[in-house]
Specification:
The chain is mainly alpha-helical. It is 53% helix and 8% strand. Helix 8 links the parallel strand 6 and strand 7. The model has no long low-confidence stretch (mean pLDDT 95). Bound molecules: adenosine-5'-tetraphosphate (AQP).
């Protein structure tokens, strides 16, 4: 993004991931990899969105451990606490307050149309709670509190950024200029990594483990999952999302972890079978994810250090959030 189309500027970046569920390579390629790149030149705020996690079934007694583990995951995947603010959503109360205030200007019809709401209502039939419906409003509050320019996310979250933009514009029109209108930033490739077992569906934390490669999976798990990944009855290793979704997904993952283009990979595997592609991809993933596993193991022994990072992050986030909420309250006629 540029100012007046000419000068590159430092952008305000916000993004978050829920603490529940083990992160998979889709989360990494869609979101965290972009964070690690963006933190070099921008003001980045990365949140562990625990309030969002309460909308799906979870176990309260495990939540604090999962939050700490997710902070460790951010660090192990390359987020640098000296360059980016890392904090826990529920520890900055302004998120809940702004979410409530934005509830009052958001039509229910807009929320009913959200794909994630429709999908999760089907997935968790016994627990279609109001939080699931209002999820995009809390997400809008998260983003708008930090006067965010860009939100690095995967494809599935694009619709939620759109509604955030609508809410920001509506608020600005009704109460006067208050929020920046943010933009979604999707990676050029990897915005939607597909399930290994159902390659026409996105890879998801809440689907069975064999459908995804966890960022911290052990080598033998990675190998077993990739070797069993669904492909098709054909033989040629060619990228074609419609006709060969499984093979195309494997090629995308291969390309993103190797830095080789899909075209180069098609050439490399010309005349070879799926088993060879899978074997080579397993080795690549085992090697690429090795440093993540090692760093995570190291950080698991440094709980005090990780908690201190979250506390410092909370303090920094709080300063920005309280300034925005003071402005919002005033504009809405509150004290
Ligand atoms: N398959 C994916 N490909 C690329 N990016 C993805 N993301 C999620 N799945 C893929 C991105 O990862 C970030 C994590 O967001 P989240 O924790 O809020 O979870 P989510 O979007 O609901 O993703 P999951 O992992 O699939 O969880 P469930 O099972 O709960 O739906 C977001 O930036 C997302 O776009």
């Amino acid at each position: 993004m540029t100012t007046r189309g000419l000068t590159p500027t430092i952008m305000k970046v916000f993004s978050g991931i829920q603490p529940t569920g083990a992160l998979h390579i889709g989360n990494y390629l869609g979101a965290i990899k972009q964070w690690v790149e963006l933190q070099e030149k921008n003001e980045c705020v990365f949140c562990i969105v625990d309030l969002h996690a309460l909308t799906s079934p979870y176990q309260p007694e495990t939540l604090q451990n999962l939050i700490l583990e997710k902070a460790i995951v951010y660090l192990a995947a390359g987020v640098n606490p000296e360059k980016a603010t890392i904090f826990v959503q529920s520890e900055v109360k302004e998120h809940s307050e702004l979410a409530w205030l934005l509830n009052t200007i958001t039509p229910i019809g807009d929320l009913n149309r959200m794909t994630q709401y429709k999908e999760k209502s089907k997935k968790f039939k016994q627990n279609v709670n109001a939080g699931l419906l209002n999820y995009p409003i809390l997400m809008a509050a998260d983003i708008l509190l930090y006067q965010t320019d860009i939100v690095p996310v995967g494809q599935d979250q694009k619709q939620h950024i759109e509604i955030t933009r609508t809410i920001a514009r509506k608020f600005n029109q009704k109460f006067g200029q208050t929020f920046k209108v943010p933009e979604a930033k999707l990676p050029n490739a990897g915005a939607k990594i597909m399930s290994l077992t159902q390659p026409t569906k996105k890879m998801s934390k809440t689907d069975p483990p064999e459908s995804r490669i966890g960022l911290f999976d052990e080598p033998e798990e990675i190998k077993a999952k990739i070797m069993k990944a669904v492909t098709d009855t054909g033989k040629t290793i060619k990228y074609n999302e419609k006709l060969k979704p499984g093979v195309s997904n494997l090629l995308t993952i291969y390309s993103l972890f190797s830095g080789k283009t899909v075209k180069e990979l098609e050439k490399k595997f010309k005349g070879k079978g799926y088993a060879e592609l899978k074997k080579s991809l397993s080795e690549l993933l085992i090697n690429s994810l090795e440093s993540f596993r090692r760093k995570k193991k190291e950080l698991l022994c440094r709980e005090v250090y990780v908690k201190e990072i979250l506390e410092q992050g909370r303090k920094r986030a709080q300063i920005i959030a309280s300034s925005t909420i003071a402005d919002v309250r005033k504009k809405m006629g509150l004290t």
